[in-house]
Write a structure and sequence with these properties.
6 strands
Length: 183
């Protein structure tokens, strides 16, 4: 990575590709604040060790349960690009567990996710802004998705999918509630 102040040749992160832009922005901000280049070794250690909860986060290894807090079409596109790196075949992907907040671009989110997963389960979070699960299921059905189940709470969805591999996304609140249930 090269900034106006330095080149960090060994900088790498074991994170989805979309995090590279976030890292570059943070490095440039830090350099600007300090008025100098950063210590390359310390920067490398910081990037590698920096947690990114809710972003392409594996909650359970077997069967895999992954969350991502993508919550608008732009972040869904970035998530799906990262997912394609590890699961390129749509038909081999696990179940999608989705919840969306009603004040978001529901149609844009659903359109992208429905085309990216072979099977979908829907739920709603405890947020007062949550889109009811039944409405979300209808949106996914209208987008051509195979909706496997509709669950009124995140806890019920987690219980129903306990033996399955799944990816949960569509809302920051979904990622947070699900992560809390795995603690």
């Amino acid at each position: 990575m090269t900034t106006p102040r330095a080149t960090y040749a060994e900088l790498a992160a074991l994170k989805p590709c979309y995090q590279a832009q976030n890292i570059a922005c943070a490095v440039a901000l830090c350099e600007s604040y300090l008025g100098r280049a950063l210590d390359a070794d310390a920067l490398f250690t910081s990037v590698v060790q920096c947690p990114t909860p809710g972003r392409f986060q594996l909650l359970r290894p077997e069967p895999p349960a992954l969350i991502d807090a993508c919550h608008n079409p732009q972040s869904v596109e970035a998530f799906l690009a990262a997912l394609a790196d590890v699961a390129p075949d749509r038909d081999e992907r696990p179940v999608l567990l989705a919840a969306v907040l009603a004040d978001k671009d529901v149609d844009g989110i659903v359109e992208l996710l429905a085309g990216a997963f072979p099977r979908v389960a829907v739920t709603q979070t405890a947020s007062p802004r949550a889109l009811p699960a039944a409405e979300l299921a209808g949106a996914f059905s209208d987008a051509g998705a195979d909706v496997l189940g509709t669950y009124p709470t995140v806890g019920e969805a987690k219980s129903a999918l306990c033996g399955e591999s799944y990816v949960a996304c569509g809302s920051i609140t979904l990622a947070g509630e699900l992560a809390a249930l795995f603690k």
